[in-house]
User: Fold these one by one.
Assistant:
Number 1:
Amino acid sequence: MNGAALPGLVVLVRARLRVNRISLAAMAILMAIFCVAALQTYVAAFPDRSTRTTMLAPLVNNGALRVLYGYPFDIADPAGWVAWRTMTSAGIIMAMWAVVITSGALRGEEDAGRGELVLSGVQPRRRWFAAALTATAVQTVIIGAVMVIALAAVGLPQHLLTFANCAELGLQLMLPALFFAAVAALTSQLAPTARAARLLAAGILVAAFLVRAPADVREGMSWLRRLTPLGWFEELRPPAAPSPIVLTVIVLATALPILIALCLLGTRDIGRGLLGAHDSRPPRRLLLGSPWQAALRDETPQLSFWFAGTTLYALLMGGLIKTVLEFLRHTPMYAQFFGEQLAVDGFVSALYSLIQLLAALLAVTLIVAARGEEATGRLELLLAMPRSRVGWQCGRAVLAIALAATLTAIAAGSMWVGAALTGQRIRASSLLLASVNSLPLVVVTVGCATAVLALAPRAVSSMYALVAAAFLWDNVGTALQAPGWTLSLSPFHALARVPMQDLAFTPVAVLTVIGAGLFAPALYRFRHRDLISA
């Protein structure tokens, strides 16, 4: 690279880092807390080395846990426990995050017209492409470094981990993001839109998971692990030293889609994917009767991933009810404090806090999609017809609340089915109450998101970070025994832990009123402001 190229690359990388600074901070904090919490759970749940193997036996042999977390190679060791308990789910989260920001930096910039504007200057295509991947790699390393420092700060003083263990866990966290960033770079050359590029990359991730799952569940199918990227990352096997062969495979597999994408980059026009979009097709008039129906139609591909993923998660979690009860029977220390029903209710309450997070994030996603309709100019065309802004905004808000509520209901049904498949029974009424208890959280999330859309439309994506921060504060603040009034700032904490606790009507009413109170002035502001493009 010549002397003139390096400053141009640095400028482009810094621009991408500035765009993604909020998501970078949120991901770094989330991953660090996620892994440290797993380590602390290990210390609290298995304090006695002599009984650790017996206590871990129900977890090692449970098929649902293997599907969810991967194969338990050495979970009696703290590093092996953290790798098993967090790295599969954290790796998938990191992979999806890398897909979103990489496709946004490439295909998304082309869709918005900014890519063509940048390339009209002195920056060649390959430098622009390299800047997008370099920015993703830099952010990935920062997230990994924060996690390593957090694990070392907690694990080294307690003699649970060595610094080498922390570094291995950091590597296992970073590699999925780097690999799927390369996949997203390739799909950005193929797909005609950023959304299509993300869905294509997400489909590859789902396929990798579906191949890995049977390899971890059935001992005779472990060879399948060699055919999937998620299996390669699993084969790093902390606390053992990483296998040079596995690392070589991962490096070559990451380099291959980048090289293919570089070759394809110069063969297509900016703003067009190689697969192309159909210029014509038979008319499909389903869900075109109103703006909210058209929005539902547009979001159907993305919604299918949300609902399918939540259904699978809830099924697996319902199947773990049996493991919870077996664990309770094998550990008299806990059995004397928890009855079976209390243990099941507590487990379901903990699961529903995650379902509530997913529902809130889905509601934010739908409001962000509404912002996308405004940013691309489609809303201006729609409002040129006899349509009102208030009706459009109300339709999108009601759609977001209805779909998020549907997600919680599907999760309840899937959890009940998962438990029934393992011979366990959960009270359907308690699951229904847990779903109802989630609605005020969705309402206040939609109210807050629509207020941001009305006042600062370009900042509406920051609602993802706000929801994540509220969820983390509920968990971290509770663990740190923070003052009650500070914990109540999080709507996740304000609600009762149903079904472990009875449904509390006061916080339900307060959150609903707050959500409605935010939505009403947001409607007024949106009605009187100018539409703002990207």
Number 2:
Amino acid sequence: MQEKLIKQWHSVRIRFKSLLSAEANLIPPAMVIMVATLASRMLGLLREVIFSSHWGPARLDAYNAAFELPDFLTNLFVLGAFASAFIPVFARYIEKGEHKKAWKLANVVTTWMFVILTLLSIIMFILAPLFVRYLLVPDWSTAKINDTVTILRIMLLSPMLMGVSEVFSDILNTFHHFTASALAPVFYNLGIIGGALILVPYLGLIWGLGLGVVVGAAMHAGVQFIPALRVGYQFKPDFDTTTDGVAEVGKLAVPRMISMGVTHIDAFVDTNLSSFLAAGSVVMLNWATRLAQLPVGIFGAAIGTAAFPSMVQKAAHKDHAGFYEILFKNLVQVFYFTIPSAIILIVMRVELVRLMYGQGGKLDWFQTLSTAFALALFSISIPAQASIYLLNRAFYALQDTVTPVVATVISVVLNSFLSVILVMTVHHFSVLGLSFSIAQFVNMILLMALLYGKAGHFRFHDFPRQIFAIVVASSVMGAVAFFFEKFLSQHFFNQARVRGVLLETVIVCSLVGVLYVILAEVLGCHALSDYLARFRKKHASKTA
């Protein structure tokens, strides 16, 4: 009897693992990443809800400002250098069957990345007071600056852990194993939430939140460790810079690092300008940004990450027609999801801010409206932000990391210039969303223009028609959402109660979401139905 139960459990476990596995091709990789990213983003919002309900904007300024520098190191050396430069070279060796070269390359790049991150973290630890006082928040009080320095020094352990984790992610993605790497951000947010709920009561706000970030980074790496070993990764420290592929990775990495460094100037400028404004401006700006980033992460990052290995393969085989077919198919999917998402965030901005950050009485009405207005301005550029993620990876697949830098530098300079002018004129943090959105659209247009002819002149085919259908369907959906929300708030739901706001938001978003899907199909954009058809086809082939 016991053996029978064990066999049944083993059978169920295998079937469940197969069902959830993107590698099995039953569920498309983008869908796996979308679901995991949605879970991660929702946990990220839960994290902010907990923070806002317990401490409010003013007490969280130090945490949000300190987060900028470790995040800068992570983006510059981990997400920047490793992801975009390492995968094309590593994948080429794997495609050719040169596994020994591939793993040696992985060890050399990982070793040097870890060493560099450690040295930079030590330097930043020592110079933390100077960075905080003169770069991030020059107009804050001495006490607030000291708190920011303390939490920054604690958080500096996280870039090294994130570096190790990114190695696991990129190797797994190269082998089209997306599940573990997609779940890593979920565990990252769980670590930070654990810091807030468990560590803060015992260690205080600064140490509790700081160590929560470190624990989250360790969990980010830990969940991918076993899957990485299963595909053959065995880390051995290797300092041999003459290894095949190292010079090529370095050549590809430098422009991407410059791009990421320049991009982060936006965050430094925004934090610096916000420090001269009312208390809590840094936090409220961060809250608005996080809500606007939700659809970018769920759809833009997920689709771009899933499409990248396929674009790399097409580019490696000089299949230009196949390359552009993948690119435009995924661009349609990006716009299909992000354009209506942006409109919903704009129309329902106040309700969403109240639900996310208005609990606990720590956010007054003026702060609610300010955060909501910033959210609307940031949301304008959601489609552009999401498409940039995919377009950049199209260039990386072609082993061109210079062109995205050009577009990024232009957009960052424009954003910084507009940010200073608008803040000096309006004296409110929300206008930073407008400057950011303008710059993102400029970035997207530049990338599209520069991509033209990069791998053979591409044909748009029915791309413009589908985008037109998406825009029309989204516009009608937005108008219906606006008037329907006004009708419900005036006649049915008490806006003074959270339950009323929640029910109204759920009803409006659900009904207009269905309306959008129907309108898009009627107008000729079949992105969702085609996606589901491919899923059913794969399901049928697997179960046949």
